[in-house]
Amino acid sequence: MKLSLIAEEVGGRLKGDRNYEIKGISGIKEANLSDITFYGDKRYKKYLRYTNAGCIILSQFQETTAKNIIIHPDPFLAIINIAYLFSHSEKRLPQNIEDPVVLRGKIGENIGIGPFSTVEENADIGDNVRIGANVYIGKGVKIRENTLIYPGVKILEGTEIGNGVIIHSGVVIGSDGFGYINRDDKHIKIPQIGKVIIEDEVEIGSNTTIDRGTFGDTIIGKGTKIDNLVQIGHNVKIGKNCIIIAQTGIGGSAEIGDNVIIAGQVGIVDHIKIGDGAKITAKSAVTKSVPPYAVYSGIPARERQKLLKALAFLFKSSKKGSGIDN
C-alpha cells in the first residue's frame, strides 16, 4: 500500500516518498523497511535512532532513521486506523452462503454463512452479516446489519443482536440463567423465559456466556466491550461503553452503569448496582453497591484509598509488634 494512500486515510502529513510501498505494521524495535510503525511513548525514544522502519508516525517532527515520516496529532490512533486497512479479520469469515447449511429464517442481502451452520425458523438476519462455520442461530433471533459472528457461536431463541456487533468463537448467548428455589430439600428449576438484548457496536470475547433473563431481559449496552471468559448472569443490565475484562463473573440482576471498567477476575454478587464511571480493580469481590465514579478494590471490595490506608496501618502495626523496623 502506497504511503500517499495511508497518509490520506488517516489524515496525516507525509514527509518522504509518496510512492513508497508499505506491506505491514510492526513495533518500532522490530520494524523493517517494508513496515510502518509509530512513536507514542517516551520509553521508546531511543529507538528513533535505530529503527529500520520504512515509515514512522510521529506527533511532531523528530530526528529518526526511518525512511519516511507521517505527522499526526495522535500516532496511536493513526496506527489503529492503518491496522484496519491491513486487517483480514472480516475476510476470514465467509463472503457467501456455503454448503451444507440449514436456513429456515429470513436472510438479508450480502450475507456470508459458513458450513454446518443453522438459522432456525423466524430468525431474521440483516444485511452484510458474516457468520462463521458451526454457528447455531435459534428461533426468533434477530441480528441487525454489519454484525460479525465467528465460528462455533451459539445464539439461542429470542436473542436480539444490534448493528455492528462482533461475537468471537465459543460464545453462548441466551442459555438458561442459573435460577432455582429449594422446596422439600429439592432444587426446583425456575423457567427462564426472558431474552438477551445486545445493543449496537458491542464486542464479545471468546467463550463468554450471557444468560437470558428469568422474566425480564438481560441487556448489554451500546459500545460495551467484553473480554474472553466472562460470565453474565440472568437479568443483568450493563450500560453503555463499559469495559469488562477476562474471567469476570456478574451475578443475576446486577446493574452496571455507563462507562464502567471492571478488571480481570472480578466477582460481582447478584442484585447490586455499580454506578456510572466506576472502576473495579482486578480480583476484587464486589458484595455491595458501588457509587458512581468510585474506585473499589479488594475482598470484599472497598473504596480503594480507604483500603490502602487500612492496609498501611495494618502493616505498620504488625511491624511494630514484631520488632521489625523496615
Which of globular, elongated, flat, extended, rod-shaped describes the shape? flat
Kindly name the structural category: alpha/beta
The name of the CATH architecture of the largest domain is: 3 Solenoid
Number of strands: 37
Rg over C-alpha atoms, rounded to the nearest angstrom: 25 Å
User: How much strand content do the residues show?
Assistant: 25-35%
Poorly predicted runs are none
The main β sheet shows up as: 11 strands, mixed
CATH homologous superfamily caption of the largest domain: Hexapeptide repeat proteins
Helix segment tally: 3
Per CATH, what is the topology of the largest domain?
Answer: UDP N-Acetylglucosamine Acyltransferase, domain 1
Classified by CATH, the class of the largest domain is Mainly Beta
Whole-number total of structural domains: 2
Percent helix range: 10-25%
Look at the structure and give the mean pLDDT: 94
Distance between the termini: 59 Å
Structure, explained:
There is one protein chain. This protein is of the alpha/beta class and 326 residues long. The chain folds into 2 domains: 3-87, Udp-n-acetylmuramoylalanyl-d-glutamate--2,6- Diaminopimelate Ligase, Chain: A, domain 1; 97-304, 3 Solenoid (UDP N-Acetylglucosamine Acyltransferase, domain 1), CATH 2.160.10. It is 12% helix and 29% strand. It has 3 helices and 37 strands. The protein has helices at residues 3-10, 75-86, 304-322, and strands at 13-15, 24-25, 35-38, 55-58, 68-71, 102-103, 106-107, 112-113, 118-119, 124-125, 130-131, 136-137, 142-143, 148-149, 154-155, 160-161, 166-167, 172-175, 180-183, 186-189, 195-198, 203-204, 209-211, 217-220, 225-226, 231-232, 237-238, 243-244, 249-250, 255-256, 261-262, 267-268, 273-274, 279-280, 285-286, 295-297, 302-303. The strands form 5 sheets. It has an 11-stranded mixed beta sheet. Strands 6-9-12-15-18-23-26-29-32-35 form a 10-stranded parallel beta sheet, with no helix packed on it. The longest helix is centred in the C-terminal third of the chain and has 19 residues, at 304-322. The relative contact order is 0.06.
